[in-house]
Structure formats: structure tokens, C-alpha cells
Amino acid sequence: MKITFIRHGESIANVGNFINDDPRKPVGLTLKGKAQAEALALRLRDEIFTHAYASEFPRAQETAAILLHHHSLQLNIDARLNERKSGMDSLPVHLFNDQVRLDPLHFKTENGESFLQQMERVRSFMDELACAYPGANILAVSHENPIIAALALTVADASTVVFRGLENCGRLDLSWPATSCHT
Predict the structure, then answer these.
(1) How many structural domains is the chain composed of?
(2) Which comes out higher in pLDDT, residue 183 or 108?
(3) For position 107, which CATH number holds?
(4) Distances in Å between the alpha carbon of 152 and those of 91, 116, 140, 174, 178?
(5) Which of 27, 32, 84, 153 has the greatest CB tally within 10 Å of its CB?
(6) Is the pTM of this model over 0.90?
(7) pLDDT tens-digit readout, 71-128
(8) How far is 161 from 152, CA to CA, in rounded Å?
(9) Within a domain: residue 182?
(10) Considering the domain boundaries, does residue 136 fall inside one?
């Protein structure tokens, strides 16, 4: 299975530099974020996707809706694509990042998840889709942290990519084998 991960367009939280890890909060795209998604939609219009997924967050679903203007696909929502649960919703991003730097793979707050836990959440999403649709070409609109977690699943040492970034409407293409399917 091939999966194309797309980070959502620029959001109000990106501009405000605050954490939004609660999908019930209506944090949408900025005008620039909508323009980023529209430009990407034009670049993706000739690509063939068999399925489309987005996280529960409004900014990811808004981006996905724009990207799907040139595709006749139903958008599926999957919480495993959600932003990393920091346990620090609405606080400045730097407060979380300052703590993560001390132990990037294992750090988590009482109500949050570690990078390694996030990797397993994303792995379950990719494993399930690879088993259900082994030859599929999946479009998945998510967030920087889960997309980097997906990348970390493809390398021997997750610490080598944990601090990698991905710009808004950035793309990561991965091939994921159907190796843990149960029949």
C-alpha cells in the first residue's frame, strides 16, 4: 500500500503559536492555509487515490475537503491520525517543545502521549489499511507530529527523525507492507 500523508494547511493555532490537541475546538485554516491547500489540490489533481482519510480536527478535514475537489472520494475520519495528545491544550507551543527536548521519544504529560505511543497509534492505522487495501493509494491528511511518527516507523532509530519538521501542506509518501494481517 502507498500512503500519501499531507500536513494540514496553516491554521489559526500555527499563527498564534498555541497548542490545539482537542479536536472539539474549532481551530480552522487561515486564508493562507486555504490557499496552500488549493495550490496543493492543483498539484494532486492528476494523482489517483483509492481512499481518503483525515483526522478528527477541523483544520485537517478542511484541508482534505479542498484537496478532494478534483477527486470523487468519500472522506473517512480516523482518530488515529489526530494530533499528538500533549495534555497542554491552549498553551504556547514552546512550553511543550522545551520539555520534549529533554527526552523526545518518551516524554509525556499526565494526560498526554509519548512520541513512541503516537508511533504505535499511527502504526495501527497503517497496518489496518494495508491489510484491508493492500494495493491501495491512500491520501491521509493529518498533522506534523503523527506524520513524523509515521516516518519514524520506517527507520531503524526513531530518534533520528523525531525532530524533523514538515511545512503546512507538506507531503510524505510511504510504502507500507501488509505484514501483520490476520485472516
Answers:
(1) 1
(2) 108
(3) 3.40.50.1240
(4) 26, 9, 16, 11, 18
(5) 84
(6) yes
(7) 999 999 999 999 999 999 999 999 999 999 999 999 999 999 999 999 999 999 999 9
(8) 6
(9) no
(10) yes
